[in-house]
């Protein structure tokens, strides 16, 4: 996401936000939200009795949703591995400088209690997990309310399958809900409108019909690839950019598939998710040298495009990722473009 966007947003919201700079938490004239706020989260009505003052978040995308809304003053800290890229040049560097980095692993109840957290914003497989006993229900017993990232909501198809709405709708839903909860509804609406405008501009120039390249999202894994079905952010990052997610039929967000299904669907482009101990360059070399993929179009034409992890999970960086991938896919549909990296 361009840093100039954040500057513009600060200027645009000056008349609606009563605070110094771009870290406002309560809009002028409204006095904040009512004493209790009811939201729909993962298909269920949830009532919050007060505005949280010490929010604890898990992972980079969730944390940056708070920063994008100017809510760093409402945060007690975040948990996040240190493998999510350079945070120095991001639009929300001020938030990272201000808010405590509690853990370089997933959140635990101990993290939350030590930080005196009064609210947890996390997601299934983005912090919440039954095996560790870190769930919304467990936190409720401690008197700590929570909010579940909409991209991660479980959909009932299996015990763990996730995703209940299109990915960008999930992003807009969370921004709108958080705006209501924290009394920054106009700021949230401005963000959603800006994101929709940015995505629409890419869509207007995107390849159409038979010219739309087929795209496979490669997260990790050598024996079996970990990828994105139709409920994770890459689905609409790919489709709005002008491509077709070859795993669209998978009714899950992030999941494992077989290499044979990748070969059968013959993607024109592979998008690599850059994070973790295995570098994007190492992933690229594996894909180009892995025997079963030798006749896949993306491998033969060396069309492997890299995006950061935070670009590809629900986050305020999704629209920027769409724009960058859109530029690349237009080159592919025109008969050009070799692999590259989508810079911020």
Automatic annotation (TrEMBL):
Secretion signal, residue range per the UniProt entry: 1-18
Matches recorded under Pfam families: Peripla_BP_2
Top-level taxon of origin: Bacteria
Keyword terms of this UniProt record: Signal
Keyword presence, Disulfide bond: no
Domain Fe/B12 periplasmic-binding: 54-336
Coiled coil: none
InterPro entries xrefs: ABC_Transporter_SBP (IPR050902), ABC_transptr_periplasmic_BD (IPR002491)
CDD domains: TroA_a
Family according to the record: Belongs to the bacterial solute-binding protein 8 family.
Name recorded for this polypeptide: ABC transporter substrate-binding protein
Organism: Streptomyces ossamyceticus
């Amino acid at each position: 996401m361009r840093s100039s966007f954040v500057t513009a947003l600060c200027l645009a919201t000056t008349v609606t936000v009563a605070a110094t700079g771009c870290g406002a938490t309560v809009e002028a004239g409204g006095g904040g939200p009512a004493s209790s706020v009811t939201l729909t989260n993962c298909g269920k009505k949830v009532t919050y009795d007060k505005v949280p003052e010490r929010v604890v978040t898990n992972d980079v995308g969730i944390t940056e949703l708070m920063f994008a809304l100017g809510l760093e003053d409402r945060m007690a800290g975040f948990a996040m591995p240190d493998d999510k890229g350079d945070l120095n040049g991001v639009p929300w560097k001020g938030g990272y400088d201000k808010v405590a980095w509690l853990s370089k692993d997933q959140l635990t109840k101990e993290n939350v209690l030590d930080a005196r957290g009064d609210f947890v914003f996390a997601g299934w497989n983005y912090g919440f997990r039954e095996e560790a006993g870190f769930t919304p229900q467990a936190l409720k017993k401690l008197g700590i309310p929570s909010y579940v990232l909409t991209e991660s909501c479980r959909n009932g198809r299996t015990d763990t399958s996730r995703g209940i709405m299109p990915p960008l709708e999930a992003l807009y839903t969370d921004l709108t809900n958080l705006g209501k909860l924290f009394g920054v509804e106009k700021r949230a609406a401005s963000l959603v409108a800006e994101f929709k405008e940015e995505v629409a501009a890419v869509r207007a120039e995107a390849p159409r019909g038979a010219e739309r390249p087929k795209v496979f999202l490669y997260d990790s894994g050598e024996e079996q690839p970990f990828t994105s079905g139709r409920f994770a952010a890459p689905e609409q990052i790919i489709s709005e950019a002008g491509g077709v997610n070859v795993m669209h039929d998978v009714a899950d967000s992030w999941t494992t598939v077989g290499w044979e299904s990748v070969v059968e669907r013959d993607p024109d482009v592979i998008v690599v998710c850059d994070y973790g101990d295995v570098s994007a360059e190492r992933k690229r070399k594996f894909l180009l040298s892995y025997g079963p993929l030798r006749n896949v179009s993306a491998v033969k034409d060396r069309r492997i495009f890299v995006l950061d992890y935070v670009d590809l999970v629900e986050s305020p960086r999704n629209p920027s990722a769409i724009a960058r991938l859109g530029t690349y896919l237009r080159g592919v549909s025109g008969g050009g473009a070799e692999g590259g990296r989508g810079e911020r």
